[in-house]
Amino acid sequence: MCAWTATAEAHPNIAFIKYWGNRDHEARIPSNGSLSMNLAGLVTRTTVTFRPDLTADRLVLHGREVEGPALARVSKVLSLVRAWSGLTWHADVRSENNFPTGAGIASSASAFAALAVAAAAAAGLDLAPQDLSRLARWGSGSASRSVPGGFVEWLPGTGDEDSYAISIAPPEHWALMDCVALVSTDHKAVGSSQGHRLAEKSPFQAVRVADAPRRLDVCRDAILKRDFEALAEVVELDCHMMHAVMQTSSPRLLYWEPATVTVMQAVRRWRQEGLPVAYTIDAGPNVHVLCPQGAQEEVASRLRALPGVQDVLTAGPGGPARVVA
Ligand code: DP6
Description:
Blueprint (H helix, E strand, L loop, with lengths): L3 E7 L2 E5 L4 E3 L4 E2 L3 E5 L5 E8 L6 E4 L2 E3 L2 H17 L4 E8 L9 H16 L6 H11 L11 E5 L8 E6 L6 E7 L9 H7 L6 H20 L3 H20 L10 H15 L5 E3 L6 E6 L3 H9 L6 E5 L6 E2 L2
Helix pairs in contact: 1-2, 1-3, 2-3, 5-6
Ligand DP6 binds next to helix 4.
């Protein structure tokens, strides 16, 4: 049987300046620009096979068939690939992560980046990097940032055509480490897609969005100059601005667990004592603790000693999403 197939790998990313809220929920045109680092070592590997005998798209995650909203989201990206390529066949999608899903390590980012790159290659499309980033964005906003490599900025744009992510520095630019303190690997109660729809309900969202270009400038500058102190300040500020919006939406979203706060307070104390560390938290309870390379072993062992920390994953800057077979 004739079939068109490709396999791609992508890394999740950690946002230093967060994406929270959309101007267009369907196309995921964000309310503000965002900036992140891809996480090397953490990988989603996805194979897409377009086949003439399939009557619908199929999704198999870690060997188990998945239907419902997750499949619908995957089909949306596949349908764009069909529209852009002229291919009419449905696809079989098989995907695996080498890290826990659903707990603040953005698995949807690596999942949809790998899907976009694999599906485009399987359909024989030769897309520009910006168009691959746009394609991934339709599946998950943060996935647009897992397509380019290293340190990545998502330019919010005004619509589908100009809302995509670009690399601002390659992974080799700065050996920054992310020590992820896992305090829970339970699946979160309110996912990001639902959370984005609640952002406008917080009176603080407008203020957060209005100040985002300034924070982006400070963060981009800190990365380009490898200025850890400046990065630490703006990353923590941006994290708290997003969680302030989450915590004042209606209904209110509180993603933190007691151990989340334990880690935040410890990191602040360590920084005051002279250890270069900073924290940030996505839509979940786990804490991403950033530090320059060289400090990660000390940071990881201190984190492991804190009550409520179950494990620590360590990742440096990762490369772009790419076809591997
Ligand atoms: C808190 O990209 O997961 O991690 O577009 O609905 O898939 P969807 O949302 P998602 O939102 C990410 C939210 C965040 C911040 C960030 O990564 O910028």
